Amino acid sequence: MNSSVSTQRFLARTLAAPESPTSLTETLADGTRLTLLDAGVLRISPTQPGSHRALISCGVHGNETAPMEIVDQLVSDIFNGQLKVNNELMFVIGNPPAAIAEQRFVEENLNRLFSGKHRHSTAKEAARAARLEALTEAFFLDGDEPRLHYDLHTAIRGSYIEKFAVYPYLHSRTWSESQFGFLEQAGIEAVLLSNQPSGTYSYFSSHEFGADAFTIELGKVRKFGDNDMRRFAQMTESLRRVVDGTERFVARRQAIKIFAVVEEVIKRSENFKLHIPDEAKNFTEYDAGALLASDDDYEYRTQRDGERFVFPITNVPPGQRAMLVVAPVTDLTELTEA
């Protein structure tokens, strides 16, 4: 392995040594310090404290390649001096072995194993979740700047709303209007407001460290090299502003759509069935009374006109989420946090 952090591109280096814990440190000409903490985990510190502490993650699902290519370009531009670092950063490629295998995961969905849920699993991803939790905690608790976490994904299905974000359940905290504005400027068309805790990476950062954190869906799953990176230009440019400290988070939402999660459909047994076509896209709209899912002694029918499904999947273990059902929100004040 090369002794320099920057002698290989971040993504190539990670995939060449997907389980290496080697720690390396390097300092750029302007004093920016780069520390490779683990395979796919790179911390970058500027010479002067910034206004935010930002975690940008990708590859939590190994077949979601576009976010990894976005992060790889950001890191490359930092190495090459084309992007100045003015905030504390940590970049994470979540599941390198799954990326090599071109699979969503190797043994278990990594994005269901955070917030300690890894303690109940023996899958390879469980150890990775525990390690990422520890590194994330060390990063966020190393300073008192406002914390950000943008966890970048792409979806299995096509979608009527191509780019959207999931806002983790906030418990007693309130939604950030400036983050809605930032996401809209980054090309995000809709935000889903979660209604309960979960095992996602973004929920972990949000709940444990008070970070403004989001799971961000940027389009459809494609293989490495098949992504049209022009489609992610707004998000990439917005992340560059986070890196160089020019993003002030003062925008307010204009046209971004807001949806509330009204049902988290859980697969209860192997008899679970989705009653939606295989080719149906995320955010397909239904009238009230439509049957979307059934299982032993359970069925979900839409409760009102305009409900839509997101993330439908049947090949999950019983007890895990098989689909979200969402409905549009016109007035956030109508919603309350428990």
From TrEMBL:
Cofactor(s) needed: Zn(2+)
Molecular functions (GO terms): hydrolase activity, acting on ester bonds; succinylglutamate desuccinylase activity; zinc ion binding
Domain of life: Bacteria
Family matches, as Gene3D superfamilies: Zn peptidases (3.40.630.10)
Coiled-coil residue windows: none
Domain Succinylglutamate desuccinylase/Aspartoacylase catalytic stretches: 53-241
Keywords associated with the record: Arginine metabolism, Hydrolase, Metal-binding, Zinc
Purpose: Transforms N(2)-succinylglutamate into succinate and glutamate.
Protein name, per record: Succinylglutamate desuccinylase
Species annotation: Arenicella chitinivorans
Gene: astE
